[in-house]
Structures are given as structure tokens and as C-alpha cells.
């Protein structure tokens, strides 16, 4: 079974590869799209650094199972 971490890493790698390919094009519009894709890849990477946990409470009820809010705040302000 494919894990969530593998899917996120594959998604980030695919976005970065596509972004780099588009940046290396000679026209302006593909370069802008490539920069946008790399920006999305960075946001997904930062969001994944918060250790995604399923069924984790939004408000702290249990101190053993929390998600780090800092990467989520970084993505929201990006």
C-alpha cells in the first residue's frame, strides 16, 4: 500500500521537475508557469513538514497527538 508520505514526496518532485522544465523554456509564459509550479511545490513541502496526522484535533485536547501549526502558518502567508 502506498503511504501518504510517498504520495506527497512524489507530488513535490513532479511539480519541481515540471517547474524546472518550464523555466528552461525560451518563452515568457512557460517561465511564469514554471515559477508558479515551483512555488506550489515549496508550499506543499512546507505543509508536509508539519507531519500530517489523520484525525488530529484542531483544538488541543490531547497533548500526545498534535500537528505543528508553524508550517501551516507559513503556507497561509506565502
Layout of helices and strands:
Elements: H1 4-23, H2 28-48, H3 69-77
Could you characterize what this model shows?
This protein is mostly helical and 78 residues long. 64% of the residues lie in helices and 0% in strands. The chain is built from three helices and no strands. It has helices at 4-23, 28-48, 69-77. Helix 1 runs antiparallel to helix 2 (28-48) and helix 2 (28-48) runs antiparallel to helix 3. The radius of gyration is 16 Å and the shape is elongated. The N and C termini lie far apart (33 Å). The mean pLDDT is 82.
* Structural category: mainly alpha
Percent helix range: 55-70%
The percentage of residues in β strands lies in: under 5%
Count of individual helical segments: 3
Tell me the series of helices and strands, N- to C-terminal.
Answer: HHH
Q: What radius of gyration results from the CA coordinates?
A: 16 Å
Low-confidence stretches: none
**What would the average pLDDT be, to the nearest integer?**
82
Shape, please? elongated
End-to-end Cα distance, whole Å, is 33 Å
Properties at a glance:
mainly alpha, 78 residues, 0% strand, 3 helices
In short:
This protein is mainly α and 78 residues long.
